[in-house]
Amino acid sequence: MGDQPTPDDDRAPEEATGDATDVMTAAPETDTVAIRLPSAPEADGTTKVSALTTVRKQAAAETVVLPVQPEPRDVHDLGWAPWVLAVSAFGVILVALAYAGGRHEAGWAMTVYWIGQVVVFSPVVFRLLSRLAGVAESFVLVMGLAANQYMLKWMYSPDQFRFPDELQHWLATTLITESGDLFRPNNALPPAVHFPGLAEMGAGLSLLTGLPVTAAGTIVAGVAHLLFVGLLFAAVLRASNSPAMAGVACVTYATAMHYLFFNSMFLYATAALPFFMLTVWAHRRWRTGGGHLFLALTVLGIAMTTVTHHVTAFALVATLLLLAGTELVLERPRPWATLIAPGIALAAVSAWIGLVARDVIDYLESPVQRLAAALNQMFGGAASEQAGTADAVPLVQLAVQGLGLLGLLVLFLAVARDMILRKDRDSWRWAALVGGAAFFAGNGARFLGSGGPEIAGRLSTFTYVPMSIIAAIAIVHAVRIIPDKDEKGRRWLSVPPPGVVVTTGRRLTRQVYVGTTLITLLMVGARTGGWPPVSALVPGPYMPAAYERSVDAYGVDAAHWQAVNLPGHSRVGGDITAVALSSTYGRTDPVREVGPLYWATWWGSAEYDLARSLGLGYLVVDERLGESVPVDNAYFQDDPMAGRITEPLSEAQLGKFDLIPEMSRIYDNGIVRIYRLGGS
Fold first, then answer.
1. How confident is the model at residue 50 (pLDDT cuts 50, 70, 90)?
2. CA–CA separation, 503 vs 514, rounded Å?
3. Measured in whole angstroms, how far is the alpha carbon of residue 372 from the centre of its chain?
4. How many C-beta neighbours within 10 Å does residue 61 have?
5. What is the pLDDT of residues 490-505, one digit of tens each?
6. Rounded to an integer, what distance in angstroms lies between the CA atom of residue 439 and that of residue 443?
7. Which one, 145, 226, 265, 324, has least CB within 10 Å?
8. Rounded to an integer, what distance in angstroms lies between the CA atom of residue 122 and that of residue 245?
9. Which of 402, 406, 408, 400 lies closest to 473, judged by CA?
10. Is 421 exposed, middle or buried (0-12, 13-18, 19+ CB in 10 A)?
11. pTM of the model
């Protein structure tokens, strides 16, 4: 997976490198040459490959791509990276202005937001695709882009965490800082008790520096995010020996649906991802002769991932099994040692889940049941009231996402055809190809009920890594989408030449522009289909059940009042936002299945029975639930009206709590009210 020539360098390969080459084909009128260079074995029997070349095996021969431009004179040369990142930083300023405009409901905010997103992203992509950047410059560009994009996430809410999952981990971290003990019960997210990696890091930084937990968590999440990107760059660079390949893979991964926000929030998945990628990188080094030190790093990465996040641990087991499987199928003699890493991972995860974090099984049961219900509904089974249906997606948004996925599919098929016809025996490329296929399969989950887009987004966190590598192979090496006909007139079965076609001049310039456009389109699609939802891309006034857009001073004040005035074991119910705030800032025990109590027009025997069965002690009522329908089409978790809400909760439905003799209003800040069940 070698480097490529510059757009304006049309010299022949012999001129540029000074090495003896076998020019298989020369076609100046099309700006392409095909190069083949038999490699000479070293004294120890190995073949030395330059960091800017690529080895491909074709039958018994090897072909090496030589870069048309000479190697950089200084490996530490940063090139144009400072200037490109300065332009990208200007985009950060534009997005910050858009956020400020959104908070004041300015009409221009969304336009400036999209301009800023493109300015942040596209200049870095263009520079990486030009093949002008060496290792140092590519690395700085990738890390600078990751830092700028993390700034976009932080500026959305610089003063506090607003996403429910972040609030849950804020509580877990706060409990450690207050007690100094791990494994403290967390009513907001019980499974997090047995995966303390993130909370321990946040608490450690807070206690060492005196920073508030929110500030410490923001730093921990940012560092973890940058480490993940850096390790992804290192892993692809190690596998490809190409800084262009590593850089393009990283910026392509930056177009994942949950990359910008969800995967850089203060969540235990964010903390686990660097250990996931450390394991993959160390495993690669070990399997390519790096020695037992890298096997030890692999085991360390497995252990840290296992105790940090359950889903990432499951994904790591699957990844290591895939890498081992492709190696066993393709390598001769069969390298049975490759099973060591997945065996250790499977044993570690099974032991941790089976002996320590057994509540994870119950925690994951509900989403699995919803997925099964959606599958049953999709394939003609009985419809489940809980399954729901996928919300309608605006046509423009659907078109952008569809074009991006179609572009990725074309690149995937082109690389697959190239590898099959070349009889490629590289096990890591085949593992990436299989992982890319899993990415497209996972995207089918978008249509599995109302939770489908979330499932697809969370799966893409892992499946988009191999897909990004496949896309980088296709873009950097300009794999032919429509191949030329061979001497038999065959097009799709024509075997690619035994060298690699190296593009120069005008054709390379076109490839840079087309590649930049495609990756930018993927970024736009990810922003419209990922997190936050389109309606909340910029901050603004309160919206019901809209996660970040639903957290404001009224709800936070009510939660802080609960922390001071209610016992810690109090069972408090409410809408999605009220429950998130009550169980974290309020330190109470959340009751989420209270939707029927709010939708009822009166409090009858059914409501009494439900409240009693839930052990409900208090209800939080936000009068703004009656002003507009929820963006996500559900006010409550497991909302009985999910997918069928056409008008807000009525005044009668929200006001009935004042008319029930057995209830008393104990708190009211003018917007949010709290009722106690059982009389005054």
1. very low
2. 14
3. 24
4. 12
5. 666 666 665 555 555 5
6. 6
7. 226
8. 17
9. 408
10. middle
11. 0.84
